[in-house]
């Protein structure tokens, strides 16, 4: 999916969760900030689509551009490290809700990104470097060997455009309901 689709889905899920759990506004804002950046963080690796943003900022210092797309940044190992970091924050001494909510939003959005990418044509290497994946030079990434073709989407295809618009509608409704709840 494109960056804007990942961000839209992430914000739709986070805003719905905040609405259902009655989060106060002070705690919800850091959650949204973390969710925004976690939604596109896995694609800052060597993929054609998103590395240009980080490369423009860091230039040759961007070590992520040398990692093949959908390899190490698209694994459950990173999500496990983020969850571990979230639960270790009180031991480090950071009991502040600000830092914990930023990390929580980042972690949830990172995981949502991987789930959405799993349904794309390329799939996700959940346990890279272990598993049965092959390198595809067309996409410059590793791909799953798929048995069924009915459950995946094409990046920037009609399904993704529809899905993004639906997420934006859900965000608008959720924020209206959050506005009524908070103010």
UniProtKB/TrEMBL annotation:
Which keywords has UniProt assigned to this entry?
A: Membrane, Transmembrane, Transmembrane helix
Q: Which Pfam families match?
A: YdjM
Reply yes or no: does the keyword Membrane apply: yes
Query: What superkingdom does the record give?
Result: Bacteria
Q: Please give the start and end residues of each transmembrane region.
A: 7-25, 71-90, 97-116, 161-180
Query: Which protein, by its recorded name, is this?
Result: Metal-dependent hydrolase
What organism is listed for this UniProt entry?
Answer: Holzapfeliella floricola DSM 23037 = JCM 16512
The organism's taxonomic lineage, starting at the top: Bacteria, Bacillati, Bacillota, Bacilli, Lactobacillales
